[in-house]
Write a structure and sequence with these properties.
The chain is an alpha+beta fold and 303 residues long. Helix content is 19%, strand content 36%.
Length: 303
């Protein structure tokens, strides 16, 4: 018996999110178009941001931890001279300062960006989804409550200057960053490193893990495909998106979510994750624990 709000849809759907929508708005649009209640996403994009939003449908929502943790690439525009309460263009102006002309020299700009490459501790924006004492930070901030966000470990793999515009007082930068990195907080901190203020004025996510914008579909096309019953044609191969080692196992080994014994699989390192297939179909993600592979995300026999 199919439960309410469940369909046979199961897949990974990369969407090119338009500006002005929350990630939840995109999820809601896919739910309405398909009638499938099990829809989620891997990695939130702020309403101002555009670009790659990885939408997960049906039992594939269980793969979210493996896709959200991937590295992400963004093209960002940093506007100098003003600060906002949200650290991006959607916020209210809070401060202003002169902008040194020297920061628009490309060599000087890149040398400042280089300081941000590597692991560091980042103070998240006050307007964020992080919880503080049981309260979501952005709700507490809007209510005028005082609170302190602790710095969190992040890593910037690369920060490539694409162009500077002294007239517009902006830099365009390509960042590749770890999970949990706020690019608008990077913009804020880069402004301070330049001895002025700055905020994020535009952001586009171009890649998440092994998926890129080339894999994505615009939301209008996706919702129309959902309404007409052909959404599966827009799904990307889950095994490729996960990028994990692959094990083909006999169906009888996978019944009832039982672990796979060591004699039936290669000697994967302890704690490593594996995509397990049966007859070419993804059945789930398993993790090596002792002398067996233990299921951690079962997606059934769907494609």
């Amino acid at each position: 018996m199919t439960r309410r709000g469940a369909t046979r849809l199961a897949g990974i759907l990369p969407i090119d999110k338009p500006a002005g929508m929350t990630s939840h708005d995109v999820v809601a649009a896919i739910r309405r178009a398909t009638g499938e209640g099990r829809v989620g996403h891997a990695g939130t994009l702020d309403p101002m941001a555009t670009g790659l939003l990885v939408v997960l449908i049906g039992p594939y929502t269980r793969l979210e931890p493996f896709l959200s943790s991937s590295r992400k690439t963004y093209e960002a525009r940093i506007a100098f001279g003003t600060a906002t309460d949200t650290d991006d263009a959607d916020g209210e102006l809070t401060d202003g300062a002169p902008v040194p002309a020297s920061i628009f020299d490309s060599h000087s700009a890149q040398s400042i960006l280089d300081r941000f490459v590597g692991p560091s501790l980042q103070v998240p924006p006050a307007y964020s989804a992080i919880k503080v004492g049981g309260r979501v930070a952005h709700r507490a901030a809007r209510a005028g409550e005082e609170f302190l966000l602790e710095p969190r470990p992040i890593e910037v793999d690369s920060a490539e200057l694409l162009r500077t515009d002294e007239d517009a007082r902006t830099w365009d930068v390509r960042f590749r960053v770890s999970k949990g990195t706020y690019v608008r907080a990077l913009a804020r901190d880069i402004g301070l490193a330049c001895k002025t203020f700055a905020h994020l004025s535009a952001l586009r996510r171009t890649a998440a893990g092994l998926l890129t914008l080339d894999d994505a579909t615009d939301l209008e096309t996706a919702t129309m495909a959902g309404v007409t019953g052909v959404l599966e044609t827009l799904f990307v191969p889950a095994v490729g998106a996960l990028g994990l080692p692959v094990l083909e196992a006999a169906d009888e080994l996978l019944r009832d979510g039982r672990p796979i014994p060591a004699e039936a699989c290669p000697a994967y390192p302890e704690g490593s994750s594996v995509s397990v297939l049966s007859e070419g179909r993804l059945r789930g993600v398993y993790r090596r624990s002792g002398d067996q592979l233990v299921p951690v995300a079962i997606v059934g026999g769907e494609r």
